[in-house]
Amino acid sequence: MQQLQLTQEWDKTFPKSEKVNHSKVTFQNRYGITLAADLYEPKQADGKLAAIAVSGPFGAVKEQCAGLYAQTLAERGFLTIAFDPSFTGESGGEPRYIASPDINTEDFLAAVDFLVTNPKVDAERVGILGICGWGGMAVNAAALDPRIKATVSSTMYDIAQCETEGYFGSENTAEQRWAKKRQLAELRTKDFAAGQNTTGAGLPDSVPDEAPQFLKDYVAYYKHRGQHPRSLNGSALWSFTGKQSFLNQPLLCWASEIENPVLLIHGENAHSRYFSETAFEKMTGRKVVGENAKEGNKEMLIIPGAVHCDLYDNLDVIPFDKIESFYKESMK
After folding, report:
1. Is the pLDDT of residue 4 over 80?
2. Are 99 and 55 in contact (CB under 8 A)?
3. Residue 288 pLDDT > 90, yes or no?
4. Which residues, listed in sequence order, are joined to residue 328 by a DSSP beta bridge?
5. d(C-alpha 332, C-alpha 326), whole Å
């Protein structure tokens, strides 16, 4: 595996827990990319543990939301890892700051590889948890890999749906999609000639009062309380052409085949709530709008009053009691 340069000091956006042991680990996906992760293990661990792999949001790093979720669940008895996806954070992969629906789904499966072969883990009790854009990757991974016994998707984005249709279907005509594809194709030519990828401008340090509330919430998190130097959403280094493959590679088309339990969690007032509603409908065939729903072992939980970013780091909002009970019941 590639020898990664990993930060050893505590550099998270949340305080270190005295209830868990923390260490840095690496593992390789099937594309040969070495991934970096933080491993959290309860100090009072006894016997082989149920384990959970966590990642997200899209463009975030393991020192942010994913690490907070992983550490909190380790406090509740699980062995957990929070990992950086390929091409981002402390993980390997070149060129940097590229996203891929296939490779990023594979990152989750590689995390499962690492956990099911870990001698401290009960291989029959392994789950995953995706936040925001990685919620969509998590559901896609669950549709591929029966080893994943339980899946949680928190404040989910379906990046493929968003790129293909625009927010709320605002760019869903064939003409609009073709125009976007043409623009990206032209940019690829330019990037190839220049020998480097064109990257984005990113979030501003502040936004005007008339800006959408969800943009204000993103700025408040990524540029202020949750800021981290390796986070792409703070430093604005995403490659524009990285979104190209999402335009014709839908993430959730086989979600109906997931046999194992899935829990979708979303805020009542989140602009992104419809992504979870759509995912629930694809998994169950049941349409749901703005309410809690359960169909077989698929469940959607709506958090009253919450917005998208509340489920990033607001410990008064994130339903960890429910998440804990869901995993323990699903991975008996």
Report:
1. yes
2. no
3. no
4. none
5. 10
SS3 assignment, position 42: strand
Residues 6 or more apart whose Cβ sits within 8 Å of residue 257 = 143
User: Of the candidates 68, 78, 12, which has an alpha carbon nearest to the alpha carbon of residue 43?
Assistant: 78
Distance CA 272, CA 164 (A): 15
Angle at the Cα of 42 from the Cα atoms of 323 and 332, rounded to 5 degrees: 45
Task: Indicate the burial class of 107 (C-beta count within 10 angstroms; 0-12, 13-18, 19 or more).
Answer: buried
Residue type, 124: E
The answer to whether residues 302 and 266 touch, using CB atoms and an 8 Å cutoff, is yes
Nearest to 111 by CA among 151, 156, 75: 151
Residue among 273, 282, 281 at smallest CA distance from 253? 282
Q: Which of 319, 283, 314 is nearest to 299 (CA)?
A: 283
CA dihedral sign of residues 157, 211, 178, 172: positive
Q: Give residue-wise pLDDT tens across range 35-80.
A: 999 999 999 888 999 999 999 999 999 999 999 999 999 999 999 9
Q: How confident is the model at residue 291 (pLDDT cuts 50, 70, 90)?
A: confident
For residues 164-187, one letter each, b for 16 or more C-beta atoms within 10 angstroms of the residue's C-beta and e for the rest, the string is: bbeeeeebeeeeebeebeeebeeb
pLDDT of 235 strictly over 80: no
H or E element, residue 182: helix 174-194
The DSSP-derived string for 294-305 is EETTEEEEEETT
* Nearest CA among 87, 82, 111 for reference residue 23: 82
